[in-house]
Amino acid sequence: MVEQALQLSQTPPHTVIVKNREEVPGSATDYKASSAAWFDWDELAADASPAEPVSVAATDPLYILYTSGTTGKPKGVVRDNGGHAVALTWSMRNIYDISAGDVWWTASDVGWVVGHSYIVYGPLLAGATTVMYEGKPVGTPDAGAFWRIISEYGVKALFTAPTAIRAVRKADPNADELKKHDISSMKTLFAAGERLDPDTYEWATKVLGRPVVDHWWQTETGWAIAANLRGLDPMPLKAGSPTVPVPGYRVEIVDAEGKPVAHDTEGNIVVRLPLPPGTLTGLWRDDDRYRRSYLDTFPGYYLTGDSGFIDGDGYVFVLGRSDDVINVAGHRLSTGSMEQWSRHIPQSPSAPSSASATNSRGSAPPDTSCSRPVSTSTPRPSARNWWRWSASRSVRSQHSAT
After folding, report:
1. Which long-range contacts link 345-348 to residues 24+ away (Cβ below 8 Å)?
2. Is residue 56 part of a domain?
3. Are residues 308 and 365 located together in one domain of the fold?
4. How far apart are CA 366 and CA 383, in angstroms?
5. What is d(CA 141, CA 16) in angstroms, rounded to the nearest whole number?
6. What is the pLDDT along the chain (402 residues), one digit of tens a residue?
7. pTM for this one?
8. Number of domains in the chain
9. 248 & 118 share domain
């Protein structure tokens, strides 16, 4: 697969390093005719000599990490050295309650921002032990993989994505595998990378009997924008919310014209400038795009690209990307809002929202959100009627807000 990618690439790398696995046939020597030079990891490591550290300026680039490209062409986020180290060191102690000597596990991929920040740099800056795990939450060999690692290594806190939690729930809904392992060392489960839906939050909270803490951030920020500061001042948890803005981030909600909106009113989530340490210093070789993408839309603010609201207690609720909407007769309806309302329906264990085309209104939300019927002993409002009520409510509220 790698060799095929090299052949397709217009700017292929010159070097490929392979770690041979007994379970995977083939080796680096199989590709001597490749356009790139293939090397064996173990052979290189055996002949390697220790390298002395090199002093750099605090403002020198640490790494370039490209975003996923959901908004089009991927953007090369540039991180600096000094601010990044300060932010991650602070976050380990104050957000995650992890200190020197603790065992911390981020079940993620080193290749994206969570892995950069909290598999490698963050825990090592804090003097903690970081667990590096190769495998999936299920099927390696079973849905108890997470609990087994926590038990074997005495993990104090686990950080993973809601998708991983949902995969475990699907494979082991009654948490039978969990009962086979002693996870008494674990104090907290942290989730990020996508919205932690209330159903997943409630299931994990119930089976673990520990705080399940959502927090929200982006590749661009490198660390949490909104979180529950478990090591500094823990706050009550609310399903669907990453809690409140982290010190350094002045989060606000504005309408399409950049005007602040009232509590509990959905709008564009923005952060008042300047940004705190650790966030992006720019885009690699593309200053103009940096300004267009993040700064020009609402002068004086960093545009997160997400939509949501802040409730009366100051809790942030992130509903999805700002452009993830359904246009119904000129009204832009948030799919995140509709999915959130849908989960109140007892017959709806999950709620993906998508548009259907109509001749009169352009698009319309679906008539039902139920992914499967659930028998109940008492009559319930139909999902169809609930959707009609929800959609009409959304049109009215968003029209009034405009």
Report:
1. 345/369, 345/370, 345/380, 345/381, 345/383, 345/386, 346/374, 346/376, 346/380, 347/373, 347/374, 347/376, 347/380, 347/383, 348/383
2. no
3. no
4. 10
5. 29
6. 888 888 888 888 899 999 988 888 888 888 877 888 999 999 999 999 999 999 999 999 999 999 865 556 789 999 999 999 999 999 999 999 999 999 999 999 998 899 999 999 999 999 999 999 988 999 988 999 999 999 999 999 999 999 999 999 999 999 999 999 999 999 999 999 988 989 999 999 999 999 999 999 999 999 999 999 999 999 999 999 999 999 999 999 999 999 999 999 999 999 999 999 999 999 999 999 999 999 999 999 999 999 999 999 999 999 988 766 565 544 556 565 566 556 556 555 456 666 666 665 555 665 544 444 444 444 444 444 444 444 444 443 433 333
7. 0.80
8. 3
9. yes
Dihedral sign for Cα 71, 77, 83, 87, please. positive
Six token digits for residue 225? 């924008």
Does 138 lie in the same domain as 75?
A: yes
- If asked whether residues 294 and 358 sit together in one domain, one would say no
Domain containing 149 equals: 61-319
CATH code at 361?
A: 3.30.300
Cα separation of 67 and 281, whole Å? 14
DSSP, collapsed to helix, strand or coil, labels residue 53 as coil
CA dist 186 and 155 (Å) reads 6
What length is written for the chain?
402
